[in-house]
Design brief:
Shape: globular
Oligomer: single chain
Bound molecules: adenosine-5'-triphosphate
Number of domains: 2
């Protein structure tokens, strides 16, 4: 059963539509990431769920109850924003206890719950420290504890790791996922970072210009993007516009392979860089390597072809690779191509 439901949610600021007709069903315990480029409406959507921004139209249901008009503090949701300002003059324990105090929870119960929650985020040894005595990652965990201690039905996270450096951010992502699994709390997180969304989310909700472009599990969305935008925002992709007819796709006179082609007419033909092989044998297209970059675990090639520039990635096997200016052939299997009628994404 759906625990949290957004039904046709829209937000207009004067004549600008920031969020348009967003519908989404989230199951209890699910971790959903709202992913998309800057300004696509992620934060506005989250703020509507939190209750800070009233929708222009649409409804929000929590456990079957319409909460669209309920005030933020009465929704009882846990919220962590990027600027998770902790109270500087309060200890870690007092920061976490604050929400319980506001709710009139008795002192002994407060102590118990604060202790439990700090253990959950592995901060039990730092209860008496002040925020200035903590690292960025520890402060982020206090913010998480502060949101979790009230045992909210839903946790809302808006770029909660935006202020952390890349390495710490990666560590915290693993930690957050483990924490979310342990607590089993329904979570919506906003991020513009595709790797973060793929690491954390059960399902990714990809947004673009106020609309939901695609919803899916990270693997499914990566393997089956529903158009040019999805394929290039989540991962890298070679995308060609062509004409589908009689089971193949023709791009500038080149017939490209595909499996089970049902579409006809104008299509986007999508193939991921790691699915393309460089070959000296019979090839689908030929081209010249214009750039080759070594990235440790893999190589990245840019190849100029009659279809346009293509990107190819190969795992580093320790063997020598083709070099810049080399003429090469490129081949890939029709199974790995994704063909999407233009205008089909929804
Ligand atoms: P970012 O990743 O940059 O935070 P976002 O996807 O979270 O972006 P939103 O903050 O939801 O985007 O904003 C969506 C659009 O709505 C933007 O164009 C923004 O300028 C606009 N917008 C947001 N809040 C308001 C407001 N109060 N008044 C007018 N326009 C607004």
């Amino acid at each position: 059963m759906n625990f949290l439901e957004l039904q046709g949610l829209s937000k207009r600021f004067d004549d600008f539509t920031a969020v348009s007709e967003c519908s989404l069903s989230i199951a209890k315990g699910e971790f959903v990431c709202l992913l998309g480029p800057s300004g696509c409406g992620k934060t506005t959507t989250l703020q509507m769920v939190a209750g800070f921004v009233p929708p222009s139209s649409g409804r929000i249901l929590l456990d079957g109850r319409d909460i669209t008009a309920v005030k933020p503090d009465k929704r009882g949701l846990g919220i962590v924003f990027q600027s998770y300002a902790l109270f500087p003059h309060m200890t870690v324990a007092d920061n976490v206890a604050f929400g319980l105090e506001m709710r009139g929870v008795a002192a002994s119960e407060r102590r118990r719950r604060v202790g439990e929650t700090l253990e959950l985020v592995h901060l039990e040894a730092l209860t008496d420290r002040y925020p200035r005595e903590l690292s960025g990652g520890q402060r982020q965990r206090v913010a998480m504890a502060r949101a979790l201690v009230i045992q909210p039905p839903v946790l809302l996270l808006d770029e909660p790791m935006g202020a952390l450096d890349a390495k710490l951010r990666e560590e915290m992502q693993i930690e957050l996922r483990a924490l979310q699994h342990r607590v089993g709390i329904t979570t919506i997180m906003v991020t513009h970072d595709q790797a973060e969304a793929m690491t954390l989310a059960d399902r990714v909700v990809l947004m673009n210009q106020g609309r939901i472009e695609q919803v899916g599990r990270p693997f499914d969305m990566y393997e089956q993007p529903n158009g040019r935008f999805s394929s290039t925002f989540l991962g890298k992709a070679n995308v060609f516009t062509g004409q589908a007819q009689g089971g193949t796709v023709s791009v500038d006179g080149h017939r490209l392979p595909c499996a089970d082609l049902a579409a006809t007419g104008r299509v986007d033909y999508i193939v991921r860089p790691e699915k393309v092989e460089i070959t000296r044998e019979q090839a689908l297209v030929r081209g010249r390597i214009s750039a080759r970059v070594f990235l440790g675990n893999h190589w990245l090639f840019q190849v100029d072809t009659p279809l346009g520039p293509m990107q190819i990635t190969h795992a580093n096997t320790g063997l020598p690779q083709a070099g810049e200016s080399d003429e090469v052939g490129l081949i890939w299997s029709g199974e790995h191509a994704r063909v999407v009628p233009i205008g089909a994404a929804a």
